[in-house]
Amino acid sequence: MFARLRSDIQCILERDPAARSAWEVLTCYPGLHALVLHRLAHACWTHGLLWLGRFISHVSRFLTGIEIHPGAKIGERVFFDHGMGIVIGETAEVGDGCTIYHGVTLGGTSLYKGTKRHPTLGRDVVVGAGAKVLGGFTVGDGAKIGSNAVVTKPVPAGATAVGNPARIIEAEADARREEAASRMGFSAYGVTQSDDPLSQALRGLIDHAAAQEHQIALLWQTIEKLSAAQGLPVDAAVQEHFDAAGISRLLGK
């Protein structure tokens, strides 16, 4: 029990830059308190003490603002960041290492008793603030759910789901875009992977700039090949200051 508590505290210290000490986490973090009380409630529930399990979860909800049904299964090193407004249903399962932000709902879309009504999160899943994951499906290991997304279908491992209704975005395209932005000295910290018009415009500009850079590189390679074929040296100064306008001037000559 104490080993698991130490693991939970260390988990919070690693993931929350605002956490300054183990004592602060132990005494001031409602996400940790909710986890400890849920384990007690879940133990009562699995041993047939259903009312007691529900009562403990009710007290936990009052103290922490986090509502976890005693029947839900929560793994190791789960981190509720801020936590207020989190709701986790009876048949939900949260895998090891998951991070869940405030306002998240792991809910159901049916009213049939005895069925799997709530989602299963794999290992190391991140669910953004305000997201709703609704239904008895699985979110794969390492997946990410964007803030305020509404997810009603399975999410593959390692994928990112955003929007309402949620859609899977291309992780490879995002990685290429981020790399291109870094080369330009631009970090889109405030840009979210959502339907926000400003976000879409910035992503479009980054993609366009990356495409232009690629075309310039191809043109330069062609000029180098032509120069080598004709035995003419390429001016180092031109290479240093090469740009789209320079290409036009060179080709015009």
Automatic annotation (TrEMBL):
Name the record gives this protein: Serine acetyltransferase
Associated pathway: Amino-acid biosynthesis; L-cysteine biosynthesis; L-cysteine from L-serine: step 1/2
Catalytic activity of the protein: L-serine + acetyl-CoA = O-acetyl-L-serine + CoA
EC number: 2.3.1.30
Keywords: Acyltransferase, Amino-acid biosynthesis, Cysteine biosynthesis, Cytoplasm, Repeat, Transferase
GO molecular function annotation: serine O-acetyltransferase activity
Source domain of life: Bacteria
InterPro entries membership: Hexapep, LbH_SAT, Ser_AcTrfase_N_sf, Ser_O-AcTrfase, Serine_acetyltransferase, Trimer_LpxA-like_sf
Cited SUPFAM superfamilies: Trimeric LpxA-like enzymes
Record-linked Pfam families: Hexapep
UniProt similarity note: Belongs to the transferase hexapeptide repeat family.
GO biological process: cysteine biosynthetic process from serine
Assigned GO CC terms: cytoplasm
EC primary class: transferase
Subcellular compartments: Cytoplasm
Major localization listed first in the record, in broad terms: cytoplasm
NCBIfam families according to UniProt: cysE (TIGR01172), EPS_EpsC (NF041874)
